[in-house]
Amino acid sequence: MRLSAYVVLFLVLIGSSAVSQQSLNMENLGNKNDYALTGQYSACWGYVAPDGREYALLGCQTGTSIIDITDAPTLREVSFIPAPQSNWREMKTYKQYAFVVTENGTGSGAGIQIIDLTNLPTSATLAKTYVWADTINSVPTMIPRVHSLSVSGNYLYLNGGNYNGIRILDVRDPVNPVKAGVYAGPYIHDSHIRNDTIFASAINSSGGLDIIDVRNKSNPTRIKLLQYPGSGTHNAWTTWDRKYLATTDEVGTTTKTLKVWDIRDLQNPTKVAELAVGSAIVHNVFIKGTLAYVAWYTAGIRVVDLSNPASPRIVGAYDTYPLNDNAAYAGNWGADPYFPSGKVIISDMQTGLHVARYTGDKRGIVNGTITNGTTGAVIPGALLHFKDAAITRWTGSNGQYIFGYAPGTYSASIEAPGFQPKDVTVTVTEGATTTANIVLSPVVSVEGEGVPTMFSLDQNYPNPFNPATTIRFTLPEEEFVSLKVMNILGQEIATLVEGLWPAGAQSVTFDARDLPSGVYLYRLAAGSFSAMKRMIVLK
Questions:
Q1: Which domains, and CATH codes, for the chain?
Q2: pTM, rounded to two decimals
């Protein structure tokens, strides 16, 4: 009853003060607050389906709400995935799956929830609950409790919970994660991974920022522990060029501000700026381009221009918590500004999901269809990696993609099984939608030679290489093909091909930008044929 009375009072106050909500260069696109009577909300994260529809995943007291926000202000809950009750719930997405964790490690169904999103917009379902099993102090131990998680490449990073450090999972098969390594450092509250470096927030006891080399997932090593007086480092995010880093301090004796660091020398990071919003406590920061989207608890969300990192300035604001801006743990928990449409989702602990758009951003959109250059048929499941923006998109069943970002020219690599890889450039125009259709050429046998008469695996070219090389092989007949990359110890680090391929001369591009220099092996298996060769990454 006390909770219900509080919620009713809060809703009345919101209704009476909505007209006075602070807003600066932020357009309100909708609010959904279906679970206020069951307890507070927590984190949110976004998902863009292959068909281009956009979804918000919202952490609730008793589970995760999956909401279609494509047609905002119409916000439609598609599914609700029940989970152990908790005030803390965090989630991230990978391909067509979501991973959700909670601080409740004792409730029924505790662990990492793996949610299958492939049937959206019809439904989403819980595929599995994974629990990390380990041996700690010679005792077999289950670790169902995780505070937060991060996704980078094909790996999931588990932070906090029952034990210190970070646990790393290989999620190339999302429903069947495989342990990849453990960083046995201090308690890590959150982590942000950029290329082969983890920026880990060691929130407790002035732990500071732990910077970790994770090129070898099985043996992460510390680069630098950045400690500053009274730190309570809650989370961190790098700028797109990885020259600067923003941190948030939720606890500790330091000021509860957004701090900006010059990290061009990882051994000697230096603070270049600090930003406060009255007495409000800062919580989470997410950087997109030159803008930082900051969840600032009672002050709502703030958009901070970091084009001059030494002089950050607030250029956008939307107050999801209109009662006050006091130094309290209430209001805006998290955000996700990475939707190609320009939408920003915001989770407020008391008022639920807010969908907004920053109107000061002169962004544009590029979309198009990827087709077969021989038949004209659309190509589903093609991968587009926009290198400059560090964003990856996949085409849906209709062969279409969409990419939204700040104005500029961006390079992209496109790959699809059975087709020659292609590099293109796309231009994003301010306030406009540009169509850029892409045609891929099927891999065919060498002209004049017809279908190959035997299996073969060629030496990669170039070799040595940095960062990418091409691996060619021939198939005399249609066959199930597996092409894997291993380190010199024979440990698998990448699967380049796994599926049925047509007869002919084939080629695959291997990108090793996240690997250290060294000798690697690549192995082709096709039917009864098997061959292995060496290649050298030289950086």
A1: 38-184 (2.120.10.30), 364-440 (2.60.40.1120), 456-537 (2.60.40.1930)
A2: 0.69
